[in-house]
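DM from R.C. (forwarded with permission)

"hey, sorry to bug you on a friday — could you get me a structure for this? deadline for the figure draft is monday and I only need the backbone to look sensible"
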Amino acid sequence: MSIFERYLTLWVALCIVVGVGLGALMPDVFAGLGGMEIAAINLPVAVLIWLMIVPMLVRIDFAALGQVSRHWRGIGVTLFINWAIKPFSMALLAWLFVGGLFREWLPADQVDSYIAGLILLAAAPCTAMVFIWSHLTKGEPHFTLTQVALNDAIMIVAFAPIVGLLLGLSAIIVPWSTLTLSVLLYILAPVVVAQIIRRLLLARGQDLYERALARIQPVSLAALLITLVLLFGFQGEQLLAQPLVIALLAVPILTQVYLNAGLAYGLNRLTGEAHSVAGPSALIGASNFFELAVAAAIGLFGIGSGAALATVVGVLIEVPVMLSVVAIVNRSRDWYEAGRAVQRVQKEPRP
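My reply, with the result:
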């Protein structure tokens, strides 16, 4: 395990502190960065997200989709959680908590925007960080690769319709042109570019490919850390001025993470899937593509919007909460395997 993986929570905490501090000390600088836009797309955020996502996507072999049948139970469970449960459960939790129980403690003019940000956060499964979570749980690497490739393929066509449907149900006006542009810019284009790079590298040999991956990995991690600093710098004043809002927005996010992780983990156990598949399945089912969510929220509603703040809160708690899910999955391994053993005995033919 690399130093980055070992002290992931520490690096994220440092980025939060640095970002919030710089945002409070140099608001004009961050306002200038926030104003660097073309067609409602923030250029610094776009560049950093590309630097973060593309190196991760170079690892993905879409030929792995031919291996879907090898872990069909785990694949089925994860797809069910990612696309039939998570976006809709988050929308329900957002309406329940933000639109209902917490409404009187939130700025009235931002309630709909907060709900939109939470919907964006849950509408797409995580891509970049999934490989780290899977590694920490000793997950089956072929399953993780296959699941991520399949989710990326689905995301290209499903993200915009799901977001549009749920925002429409929330009576939030959907700027379809900006939403479509976000899908093209942050999903389709990086996938295409990454696959071209992958093919070019592999054409020159597996050794060169492996060396190139080792070189570009730090670029992806550095981009992640700089993105966190930039995002928390953009929202620094709001984070310092609205600690109660941050805490309230964290409630539906935390609830949906543990709800979906637990549901995926339990369904894998019921179906008799191996723990090495159930672990990454639970983590993929619970984690969010926060890079895409932040970029889409900024493009749709602006850097200073409640939607952008809600997605940044997702970033704030993503790493610590996912590390807690990793710990739960690892510590429950014996319980999980005991349940599978009972199932095997029950399925054995009686004499």
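R.C.: lifesaver. The radius of gyration is 20 Å.
me: no worries. The chain has a mean pLDDT of 82.
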